[in-house]
Amino acid sequence: MTTTLAAQAAAPGRAKSLPGGRILLGAAVPVFIIGLWWLVTGPLDLFTPTQLPAPQSVLDAGVGLFEGGALFAHVGISVQRVLLGFLFGAGVGLLLGSLLGLSRIADGLLHPTVGAFRAVPSLAWVPLILLWVGIGEDGKVLLIAIGAFFPVFTSVHSALRHVDPHLVEAGRAFGYHGTRLLTTVQLPAVVPPVFSGLRLALAQSWLFLVAAELLASSEGLGFLLIESQNNGRVDRLLLAIVLLAILGKITDTLLGFIERKALKTWA
Q1: In the 8-state DSSP scheme, what is residue 122?
Q2: Which pTM was predicted?
Q3: In this structure, what CATH number is given to the domain that contains residue 189?
Q4: Helical segments of 103-163, H only
């Protein structure tokens, strides 16, 4: 009897540890959505192809762009812009957030100004960037960097302001000061909120990418969106949306992997 009860209690644990179980669970909703999409555009015929193309039509549009070489061009330039903007914006956010989180003088001097700029809508920066930087790659990367900056700055600043003071004093007792104290004691203490800010900043980078590529761009997924709208190619428009979702999830998963490694190392 005891053995049976123990086996029953262990069964859920074994189910949770099945190889690929978490992946299958996460794939359930996307598979359901695709199935529903096929159902309403196929057997039920609730939408016309100009309203909602079938999944096969979107796949065919992707194959056509792939065979013409345009798909890799659109995806490659968008990924490049996101990574450059994210790295630049997140790096500045980490540095400035650390400065204001550690220095009361810097916090009192700069935080009201940074908070005011944070309230400015993202699209409000576009005319100024076009005027100062131009419509080239630098302007697009700068707009994405603005989107990545504020989540990282806010999370780092807030987390460092709430680090346990006893932990800091212990670090100083071991002879850590300045940059060494920051990198050895304070930043490792705030790894979880910092990575939460980084993941939010990465999502913001993809959002700002579309805004950047909708304006004065000749390639990229944002450009593909607006071009498809103008040409009435709803299949390509949906393809661009699906690609943005997939790329966003892939980059978030990679950052999540780095986060787990960082938590094992520092937290």
Answers
A1: G
A2: 0.84
A3: 1.10.3720.10
A4: 104-118, 125-132, 137-161
Question: Does residue 128 fall inside a structural domain?
Answer: yes
- What is the three-class DSSP state of 213? helix
The C-alpha atoms of residue 135 and residue 218 are separated, in whole angstroms, by: 11
- Whether residue 131 is contained in a domain is answered as yes
Which residue is associated with the tokens 């790659």? Answer: 137
Report yes or no: 85 and 77 within 8 Å, Cβ to Cβ: no
Q: Which two tokens stand for residue 131?
A: 């005027």
Structural domain of residue 188, as residue ranges? Answer: 55-265
190, 199, 191: which is closest to 253 by C-alpha? Answer: 199
Q: How many domains does the chain have?
A: 1
Query: CA nearest 208: which of 92, 97, 115, 78?
Result: 78
Residue 239's Cβ-count burial label (10 Å; 0-12, 13-18, 19+) is buried
pLDDT tens, position by position, for the chain (267 residues)?
Answer: 444 444 444 444 444 455 567 778 888 899 999 999 999 998 888 888 888 999 999 999 999 999 989 999 999 999 999 999 999 999 999 999 989 988 889 989 999 999 899 888 877 888 888 888 877 888 899 999 999 999 999 999 998 888 878 887 888 888 887 778 777 887 788 888 899 999 999 999 999 998 888 776 788 999 999 899 889 899 999 999 999 999 999 999 999 999 998 888 875
Q: Which two tokens stand for residue 27?
A: 């794939």
How far is 259 from 203, CA to CA, in rounded Å?
15
